[in-house]
Inverse folding.
């Protein structure tokens, strides 16, 4: 056991000096605490040695499996016990709706009607852990003063006992969980139990007794006959594990809901081939009694097996919620989130249409919508001031969900909706709150009037929390995506100049991994009656590479404009890159083009060789002499090579992203590019550029940026 301070000092007993506490300190304190406030379950957490982590030391009233996801809780986690200890306060959650709003992660796994209080176990100087206790759904929505005082005092006493144990070098360890055990009344009680068993065995309907783990501890003959298994096969097993047609998360969910809420629960299940059975669960703090009967009304309505498309017995099962949560983590952009909600979440909850709303500059913004026959009905809300009294703005501003069973109910609260009917009859407005702030509102619309009972509201609110987290990530991704594309577009030429004797086309494709921004660049510069073309690749594909690329491109254009020769342009750019001290290298290919004389002078710095397609259709790789990458050696020289450029010739300049891909030999890739250029070289320039990209394996799944500049010499008239 480790005590950590509130930031001023830390206390920890020497490990070697500790001995085990003689009696179950934690179990006794928890049992007494629960008894004082009539709670039906609870747990004590202790801080883990040397870690900002709470570990469950003992649980009472329910199987530990109910709290399995939270046996170890980080102090920063959005969990009641962590909040209670971190903020040194009592945390109260007064029902499933409040749980769904405040702690959606818990509500997803435990969407049941119960209340919870969490408190710190700490002295003024040292924190030891935390406690939570729960009550059935019948508990009032507010914690009474008496309960608050009892819980606070009990946690204070436990903290003092832990402090004394630590000062005495006594180690407090985990203790066996406390589960309810039926009372035994001696001989008279035993005789009474025997007679009770005889009486139960004579009843015409089935009776089972389940312990807190859901295992069958008793079943009468009628229950065995109805279920279709002998009593011996049922005893000691869980019904959903031993009975194949009960092996559905929905039925296990009913057992969990009954125990947590301590409310009578029921469900109907089909025993193949066509017998419907009704199961009614009567919970207590020691287990459940289950009554099994034939569901005659249902059996008469469904003589045959259920047809495809029958509605499930619960709005959304736990397995569905977990599946939806997993799907939401895969959504990348805002439209991905909208589409996923439309495809998976809306059908699961019976909704026929949805709108996703956000805010921008104090106004409502429609992020996306699906299912509306007339999209203008939705789009008219785009740009609406957030101060406007509408259900969408109210949910976004307050973070409070709103449910409208009918059009009359909506119009009674918002009369302006008379003028903007959308053709639907019921609505759920779910605030999307992530990281403590509203990021939007999800509006689910229903074609028919639709009641929203408490459990359905809790599920929808929980789903709103999951959607909010996905939407927050998607908004951030879209913002970065737009920033990256805007920066890349600003650094590359908006268009290529029209030059006499030349046709040109260029393409740029960002890498499909990362920020979709990189250091590949190209340019075409008119200069003193001739033209200069340049293509290059700065190491990396991030903002730093893009910024450096912009500086290099500007420098090359400036050196070209003042009339430097190709080799001088390369040497000047190399020295500039070294002077900038960017620790990044760049490859570059620079050409001085003179179409009137039918020639080109080229200088190369570690760049892939260009391809030249002659007018007769033959393609050759121009293996030019060159120097090292720019930014390595300040004294490097870059020799030039002169190449004939007859009318009809096509030069293909590109970066390595066009030819390099995992598992492909670079020579084979270069040969393939040459073949495609030979076959399609007569196409118009833009069509040729698209053709080369479309048929390049490396350009499909791009691990690197791709830049390409195509130049065709034309006879001048």
């Amino acid at each position: 056991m480790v005590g950590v301070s509130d930031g001023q000092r830390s206390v920890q007993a020497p490990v070697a000096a500790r001995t085990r506490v003689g009696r179950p300190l934690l179990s006794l304190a928890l049992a007494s605490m629960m008894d004082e406030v009539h709670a039906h379950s609870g747990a004590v957490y202790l801080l883990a040695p040397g870690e900002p982590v709470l570990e469950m030391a003992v649980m009472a009233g329910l199987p530990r499996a109910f709290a399995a996801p939270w046996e170890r809780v980080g102090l920063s986690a959005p969990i009641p016990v962590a909040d209670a200890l971190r903020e040194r306060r009592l945390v109260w959650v007064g029902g499933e709706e409040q749980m769904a709003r405040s702690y959606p992660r818990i509500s997803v796994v435990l969407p049941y009607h119960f209340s919870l209080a969490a408190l710190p176990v700490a002295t003024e100087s040292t924190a030891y852990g935390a406690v939570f206790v729960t009550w059935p759904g019948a508990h009032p929505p507010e914690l009474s003063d008496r309960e608050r005082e009892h819980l606070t005092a009990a946690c204070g006493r436990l903290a003092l006992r832990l402090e004394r144990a630590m000062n005495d070098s006594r180690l407090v360890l985990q203790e066996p969980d406390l589960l309810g055990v039926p009372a035994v009344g001696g001989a008279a009680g035993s005789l009474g139990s025997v007679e009770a068993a005889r009486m139960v065995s004579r009843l015409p309907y089935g009776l089972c007794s389940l312990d807190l783990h859901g295992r069958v501890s008793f079943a009468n003959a009628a229950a065995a006959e109805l279920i279709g298994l002998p009593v011996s096969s049922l005893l000691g097993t869980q019904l959903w594990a031993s009975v194949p047609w009960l092996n559905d998360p929905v039925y296990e969910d009913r057992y969990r809901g009954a125990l947590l809420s301590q409310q009578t629960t029921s469900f109907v299940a089909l025993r193949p081939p066509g017998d419907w059975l009704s199961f009614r669960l009567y919970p207590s703090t020691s287990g459940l009694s289950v009554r099994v009967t034939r569901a005659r009304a249902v059996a008469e309505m469904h003589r045959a097996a259920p047809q495809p498309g029958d509605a499930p017995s619960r709005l959304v099962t736990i397995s569905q919620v977990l599946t939806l949560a997993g799907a939401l983590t895969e959504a990348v952009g805002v439209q991905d989130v909208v589409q996923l909600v439309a495809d998976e979440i809306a059908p699961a909850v019976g909704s026929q249409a949805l709108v996703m709303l956000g805010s921008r500059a104090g106004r409502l913004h429609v992020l996306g919508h699906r299912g509306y026959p007339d999209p203008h009905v939705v789009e008219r809300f785009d740009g609406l001031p957030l101060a406007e009294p509408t259900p969408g703005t109210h949910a976004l501003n307050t973070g409070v969900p709103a449910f409208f069973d009918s059009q009359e109910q909506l119009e009674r609260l918002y009369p302006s909706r008379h003028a903007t009917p959308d053709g639907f009859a019921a609505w759920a407005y779910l605030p999307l709150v992530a990281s403590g702030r509203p990021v939007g509102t999800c509006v689910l619309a229903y074609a028919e009037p639709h009641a929203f009972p408490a459990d359905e509201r809790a599920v929808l609110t929980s789903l709103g929390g999951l959607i909010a987290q996905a939407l927050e990530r998607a908004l951030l991704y879209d913002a970065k995506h737009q920033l990256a594309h805007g920066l890349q577009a600003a650094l590359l030429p908006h268009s290529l100049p029209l030059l006499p004797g030349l046709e040109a086309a260029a393409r740029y494709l960002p890498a499909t991994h990362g920020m979709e921004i990189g250091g590949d660049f190209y340019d075409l510069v008119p200069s003193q009656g001739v033209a200069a073309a340049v293509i290059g690749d700065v190491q990396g594909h991030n903002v730093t590479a893009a910024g450096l690329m912009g500086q290099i491109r500007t420098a090359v254009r400036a050196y070209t404009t003042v009339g430097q020769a190709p080799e001088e342009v390369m040497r000047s750019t190399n020295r500039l890159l070294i002077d900038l001290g960017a620790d990044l290298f760049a490859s570059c290919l620079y050409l001085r083009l003179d179409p009137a004389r039918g020639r080109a002078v080229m200088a190369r710095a570690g760049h892939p060789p260009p391809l030249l397609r002659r007018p007769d259709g033959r393609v050759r790789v121009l293996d030019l002499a060159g120097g090292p990458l720019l930014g390595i050696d300040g004294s490097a020289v870059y020799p030039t090579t002169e190449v004939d450029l007859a009318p009809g010739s096509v030069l293909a300049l590109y970066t390595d992203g066009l030819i390099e891909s995992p598992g492909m030999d670079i020579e084979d890739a270069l040969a393939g590019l040459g073949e495609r250029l030979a076959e399609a070289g007569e196409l118009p320039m833009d069509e040729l550029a698209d053709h080369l990209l479309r048929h390049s394996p490396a350009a499909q799944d791009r691990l690197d940026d791709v830049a390409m500049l195509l130049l065709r010499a034309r006879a001048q008239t």
Q: What stands out?
A: Confidence is low (pLDDT under 50) at residues 1-22, 181-191, 297-314. The chain is about 35% helix and 25% strand.
